[in-house]
Every structure is written in C-alpha cells, then in structure tokens.
TrEMBL record:
Catalytic activity entry: (R)-2-hydroxyglutarate + NAD(+) = 2-oxoglutarate + NADH + H(+); (2R)-3-phosphoglycerate + NAD(+) = 3-phosphooxypyruvate + NADH + H(+)
Name under which the protein is recorded: D-3-phosphoglycerate dehydrogenase
The EC number(s) this enzyme carries: 1.1.1.399, 1.1.1.95
Lineage top rank: taxon: Bacteria
Species whose genome carries this gene: Cupriavidus necator (strain ATCC 17699 / DSM 428 / KCTC 22496 / NCIMB 10442 / H16 / Stanier 337)
NCBIfam families: PRK11790.1
C-alpha cells in the first residue's frame, strides 16, 4: 500500500513527448522506452512503477496486472483499450484512461477532403496523369457545394464531419440510433435507407458492434443514389466489402474512400490485400484517419492530464473501466481512496473503521459501476498505519490508498 503521493511513470512505445511534459509538471519522474514490452520485461517495469503508459502494441493481460499489486493506473495513449484486460484492472482497483477525442478532428478533415477528391474523380485522373495520360474534362466531376452528405453515426466524429461539410455548402443529413443534437442545419433521418437514399456522399462513423457488422450491405448499397460515394473511416466490419466491390464494378456507386478493413496487416511489413485494389476512383488508406502529429500530441497531453489528475486527487472522470468520481482538489489533511466490492455494508464498514479511530470524515464521494464501488473520503487527520493495515487486509476492499496534502 502506498502512503505518499506517487512519483514514477514508465511510458512505452514512443508515446509523444507532450506526455512527459504534462506528467513532469505534475511532479512525476518519467522513464521512456521506444518499443512495446511483453513477458518478464513487462512485469519488471510494471512492478517498479506507479503508472504505465502504453499504446496498442503492449498487451496487459490479467496475470500481468495481477503481478503488479502496487500499480496505480494505466494510461492507454490511443483510442482503443482492447489491449488491456479491463476486468482484471477493475478488480485490482486500477483505473484505465484513454484519449477518445484527440483525433476526432483529424478523421473529420480527411473525410471531407476525400469527399471533394472523389466528387471530382481526382484519384482516377491522378493515376492517369502519373501514367502519362491527359484526362482533361468536366464530365462526372462535381462541386461539393449543394450536395447532400449522409452521416451514419452522428457522434464525436460524425458531428464534426457535418460541421465541416456544411461550411463548404453541403446539406447534412444524419442517421443515428440515439437522439442527437443537430449542429447547424443538419437534419436527422428516420432510417438508414432514408439517409443514404438522398445523399451524393455517404460517410460512416459508427462503432464496431454486432449491430453495425455489415450494416452497409448489398441492400443498403442498392438504396444509395446512382453514382453516390461511400466513405468508411470507422471500422472495417461495418461494410460488406464484396457487396461494395460489386457496386463499384457495376458503376452503381461513383467511388469510395476506405481507411479501415475487415482484415488489416498487423505491421507495415505485412502484405495488404483487398478486393478494392486497382479500382478507379477508389482511395485506399492504411487506417490513418486519426493519424496526425497533432492527434499524437493531443493524445499525449490528454491521457497524461487524466493520469496526473487521478494521482493528485483520486478523480476518475474519463476512466474506461471504473466508477467515475470527481472529488475536486484536496483541502483536507488526507484523502482516502478506497475500491471495494459493490455489496451492501461496504461503505458502512469503511466508515466504522474510520470512526473507531476517531477520524472525522469531512467529505465523501461514492460511485459504483458493476461489481465495483469507489469511494473518495476526505479526513480531518492522517489515519494511523494500523488503520491503513486494517483497510488493506479487509476482505471486502480491493485497494486503499492515501493522498496527503
Ligand atoms: P462516437 O461513439 O462518438 O459516435 C458513434 C455514434 O454512432 C454514436 O452517436 C452512436 O449512437 C452511433 N451508433 C452506434 N451504433 C449505431 C448504429 N447501429 N446505427 C447508427 N448509429 C449508431 O464515436 P466516434 O469517436 O465518433 O468514432 C466513430 C468511429 O470512428 C468508431 O468506430 C471509431 O473506432 C472510428 N475511428 C476511426 C479512426 C481511424 O483512424 N480511421 C480514428 C478514430 C476513430
């Protein structure tokens, strides 16, 4: 059990330097490694640091997490968190943070610019020009202005795409399973078919779920306007690639920009194969929708700020696996962070132990999520080592940590 404020972080996988600056500002000592780690080497760094920062190549499995009982938090300096066994982290009382919004703008810019390129049939003309052929002509080339873009999934990215598209004079219609606030003059459609049937450009921004698997299939492609353009920078599972290839071959669709694929190479050295290769007016990109220098920098700052906030205050807003509590800055002499099984009597047991030692509670914030309860308690004095030992060995508590002012 740690009794003092925390000081060491290890950042793996060449995380952007912006993270160092933010963590150092919060008083942490930061070590860096360029590559991913696994096995004994990974366990060794987990055991000797308070915080670990990873990207997508380091896998933190249940036994890795269990091998590091002193680890306080995990920062995923990326969007996805499937490389971490989140349940094991929660059980161990470890909040996991990520950066869900840092690359939103990067994806939105790419999508809108691809729409312009495809409406003008630039990929085709570019290929011909490189091959020494001059394909000057206006036939089949259109402005974006006045055209309709259908946004499927009007969340963080989808709504940003709408704002950018509208600023270029496009009409925006969107389809989402949830009621969403329309930005600008965007209109909600009642169904996916209704959205795609009125659009010159269809762009997908839904998550990968069983419900979105192959949601763009032959039936939906048939409902699209003749010559429409399809853009997918969401997840590869969302589009039935064979059906899309058929619609492009038969020239029912005017073009496509695809950034994500059902099967993607694991590294830049692995081959990439797709039925969509070598088709005219089709842009294929290697899952780079959110890959910009700015996004990397934002990710570094965003995740580091969440980690620093947690270490300083116990606040877990933005944690992907944990009850979210925001107790604010520490004004009391001590703050006790307690993770417990979400069962009747857990909070009473904690408060009884504090009362028995005559420690007064000056503030308390509790949240639960699934099987886990997290309570942050401000105290009028620093509890004794004996009390902390009793909390640490209590059968109903997963973890107890003190932050001292
Ligand atoms: P978000 O969670 O903010 O928005 C997703 C929206 O889709 C929500 O409004 C949700 O209600 C809606 N939705 C869910 N299921 C639906 C369904 N069956 N039909 C219609 N709408 C549905 O997510 P965000 O941040 O906008 O990301 C969107 C997608 O972009 C995700 O799949 C994400 O993984 C992907 N992405 C891709 C990147 C790339 O490099 N290409 C980078 C960043 C994100």
């Amino acid at each position: 059990m740690r009794k003092t404020n925390v000081t060491t972080a290890i950042l793996l996988e060449n995380i952007h330097q912006s993270a160092n600056a933010r963590l150092a500002e919060a008083g942490l000592q930061v070590e860096r490694r360029t590559g991913a780690l696994a096995g004994a080497e990974l366990r060794q760094v987990l055991a000797s640091h308070d915080v670990v920062g990873i990207r997508s190549a380091t896998h933190l499995r249940a036994d890795d997490i269990r091998s590091a009982p002193e680890l306080l938090s995990i920062g995923c300096f990326c969007i996805g968190t499937s490389q971490v066994d989140l349940e094991a982290a929660t059980t161990a009382g470890i909040p996991v943070f990520n950066a869900p919004f840092s690359n939103t703008r990067s994806v939105a810019e790419l999508v809108v610019s691809e729409a312009v390129m495809l409406l003008r049939r630039i990929p085709e003309k570019n290929t011909l020009a490189h091959a020494g052929k001059w394909a000057k002509g206006a036939a089949g080339a259109f402005e974006a202005r006045g055209k309709t873009i259908a946004i499927v999934g009007y969340g963080n990215i989808g709504s940003q795409v709408g704002v950018l598209a509208e600023s270029m004079g496009m009409r925006v219609v969107y389809y989402d399973v949830l009621a969403r606030l329309s930005h600008g003059s965007a209109r909600a459609a009642g169904s996916l078919e209704e959205a795609v049937s009125q659009a010159e450009v269809v762009t997908l921004h839904v998550p990968a779920t069983p419900r979105t698997r192959n949601m763009i299939d032959a039936r939906i492609l048939a409902a699209c306007k003749p010559g429409a353009i399809l853009i997918n920078a969401s997840r590869g599972s969302v589009v039935d690639i064979a059906a899309l290839a058929a619609a492009l071959r038969e020239k029912r669709l005017g073009g496509a920009a695809i950034d994500v694929f059902p099967e993607e190479p694991k590294t830049n050295n692995d081959p990439f194969v797709s039925e969509l290769q070598n088709m005219p007016n089709v842009l294929l990109t290697p899952h780079v929708g959110g890959s910009t220098e700015e996004a990397q920098e934002n990710i570094g700052t965003e995740v580091a700020a969440k980690l620093a906030h947690f270490l300083a205050t116990g606040g877990t807003i933005g944690a992907v696996n944990f009850p979210e509590v925001d107790p604010g800055p520490l004004h009391a002499p001590a703050r006790l962070l307690n993770v417990h099984g979400n069962a009747p009597g857990a909070l009473a047991a904690l408060n009884t132990l504090l009362a028995q030692e005559g420690v007064n509670i000056t503030g308390q914030h509790l949240q639960t999520r699934g099987h886990t309860g997290y309570v942050v308690t401000d105290l009028d004095r620093v509890p004794s080592d004996q009390l902390m030992q009793a909390l640490r060995t209590h059968a109903g508590f997963a973890r107890s940590r003190l932050i001292l002012r």
